[in-house]
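S., here's the first fold you wanted:
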Amino acid sequence: MATIGYHASHEQYRPSSLLSNVQAAEAAGFGCAMCSDHFAPWSDAQGQSGFAWSWLGAALQATGLPLGVVNAPGQRYHPAIVAQAAATLGEMYPDRFWLAVGSGQNLNEHITGERWPTKDERNERLLEAAEVMRALWKGQEVTHYGHFVVEQAKLYTRPLTPPKLFGAAITPETAEWVGSWADGLITIGKPIEELQEVVDAYRSGGGEGKPMLLQVQLSYAPSGEEATEAAFEQWRTNIFESPVLADLRTPAAFDAAASFVRPEDMQGPVRISADTEQHVDWLLQELELGFSEIYLHNVHRSQEAFIRDFGEHVLPRVRGS
């Protein structure tokens, strides 16, 4: 049976508020949670960006939910440090923490002052990072010279079972590549035909039989007009194709790029509806594609109403399907 989870958006809320939100989500019946890991928000209108790893420890302690995060090792984060952080959470909360890794965005990584690599270079770096982290989780001493350097690193605190290492992919091309090395896939919501292409590519690349996770952006409100307005106000900087999302450098650049976005452009990249039945229908279509966990990110500022209404009207319908 698939599990419906809550996505904690560090770009939009203070970490203290997100902790209350994830506790409320657990009480409402959400079965898991995940969070973003940014140094900056996508837009000045979002306004926050807490440190995900501090929050993860608090959230794992404050709830009984499995939790995960999408991280970009190799530039802002040294992979050995990511491996240590993941191992510590895995030891403290056995079988409850998972890690997904992706090639990252210049928005977060440019702060190191290093050159922003091409997509091919970032994929090479990502695969190197995955191999280094897995070796460290096995207790090996690692020395590595490549897109980053590791010298005589060894983790002395490790969980009995290493964390699951998922690969993040938006396009079918990246999903096919991720299928060859990751323990599972995490991708984002798209129109169902485009999502099917991502799933097919992942499976054909070696992902057949491995778990698939989905993160969905939606906007739920008492009226469709309010839901559209909230999506436009909070998430219009996030609807671009993958190369744009990866390469823009600052929240101001995203705000400038989004100056041409209209409210009517938001439907599709964001699922906008005041009707819980419509949200049930969307989820059921995605479950048919084989996703084992779907994480819901309501971009609307009102998390309380979303958690309450989905707990009452959406989650029971999906679990009973």
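And the second, which I think is the more interesting of the pair:
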Amino acid sequence: MIKDIRHTGIVVIDLEESLHFYRDLLGFQIVKQMEEAGDHIDNISSLRNVKVTTVKMTSPSGQMIELLKYHSHPAEQKTREICEIGISHIAFTVDDLDIEYERLKDKGVQFNSPPQLSPDGYAKVTFCRATEGTLIELVEVL
């Protein structure tokens, strides 16, 4: 029934900081930015009087994320733990995790740990947090 995963939506507090993280640090490219309001967005979000900026971005391989900055319905930022119910993280593949870890750490990105070798030896893995707190898994397949 499902044909494909279209995108992952990420609600952000500071759109410019989030664009810096996803575009400038991770390499996503903006493909569409819109200001949305009106009956359509109210109905599909089950909210009223929505005003939201949406930014669709693609990775070099074409995978898409969507940043959403709600101007009308600001939410309190909460740090979610990886073990909480619901979507816990987004995983991105990189060519050389050691290089990316050092590069991002030098830019102030906070990591849970240095890259770790998976028990089966298949990959190196680490987790960091985007500016809005979303957990990001970086994986290098060996």
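Why I say that: The first helix runs from residue 15 to 25. Strands lie at 8-11, 29-37, 51-58, 64-70, 90-93, 116-117, 123-129, 135-141.

Talk tomorrow,
H.
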